[in-house]
């Protein structure tokens, strides 16, 4: 099997078997086994030989979402994200959460699976052996104080219309320049970040029994149907289904 510069990042956990799997362009003696992890960053290339049974789970994460999660976790510029390429590594914390994700998915527990996926990526980021930040200087992007004030403004105005021009004014930048610098710093556009934060706020509010239409308004959606579309796009389920699964 050959992987040639794919889009997105891949976390692969071996659940059973794997002794017949080896990487042809890596360490020739290394073989898969239950509990080991492979990390394949975006645009990596690799060649594999598979001669025996194995069972594993792949978690695919788009690059923009990976960088958004990094920026959200560490409150740091997304370009500092470090994602090494690993083959057959022992990573107990990541293995545990990926197993939990697999069990939840097989049982139809999408809410638990989503939580496990988020936890798996957070575990990766905070483990100094695998994730973390690049020890290098970066140029461009938003200045730290502009990043902080922009996110504070977004959180304070999620229930309102948030205009790109208003965000750009915080850093005294043009809308075009602000949008480019925001994407560089956070991995996603300002619109993508706002959409994510609105869904996250809706998720927290759905634990109470307020009407969904009221929650939609409080989170800045134009209507209940608008929230339903955005929520399903972000979580895979409707707000009603999410509330029931909680």
From TrEMBL:
The keyword Zinc-finger does not apply. One of its GO terms (molecular function) is sequence-specific DNA binding. Keywords: DNA-binding, Transcription, Transcription regulation. Transmembrane segments: none annotated. The keyword Transit peptide does not apply. Pfam families: HTH_18 (PF12833). Residues 148-245 form the HTH araC/xylS-type domain. This is AraC family transcriptional regulator. It comes from Rhizobium laguerreae.
């Amino acid at each position: 099997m050959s992987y040639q510069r794919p889009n997105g990042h891949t976390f692969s956990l071996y659940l059973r078997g794997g002794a017949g799997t080896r990487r042809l362009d890596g360490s020739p003696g290394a073989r898969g086994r239950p509990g080991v992890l492979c990390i394949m960053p975006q645009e990596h290339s690799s060649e594999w030989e598979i001669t025996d049974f194995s069972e594993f789970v792949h978690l695919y994460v788009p690059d923009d979402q990976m960088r958004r999660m990094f920026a959200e976790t560490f409150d740091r510029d997304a370009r500092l994200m470090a994602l090494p390429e690993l083959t057959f590594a022992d990573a107990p914390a990541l293995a545990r959460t990926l197993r939990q994700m697999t069990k939840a998915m097989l049982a139809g527990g999408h809410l638990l699976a989503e939580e496990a996926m988020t936890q798996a990526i957070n575990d990766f980021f905070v483990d100094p052996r695998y994730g973390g930040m690049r020890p290098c200087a970066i140029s461009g992007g938003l200045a730290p104080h502009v990043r902080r004030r922009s996110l504070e403004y977004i959180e304070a105005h999620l229930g309102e219309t948030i205009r790109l021009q208003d965000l750009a004014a915080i850093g005294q930048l043009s809308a075009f320049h602000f949008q480019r610098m925001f994407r560089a710093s956070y991995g996603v556009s300002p619109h993508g970040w706002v959409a994510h934060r609105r869904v996250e706020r809706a998720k927290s509010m759905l634990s109470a029994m307020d009407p969904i239409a009221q929650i939609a308004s409080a989170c800045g959606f134009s209507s209940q149907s608008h929230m339903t579309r955005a929520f399903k796009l972000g979580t895979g389920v409707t707000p009603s289904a999410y509330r029931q699964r909680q």
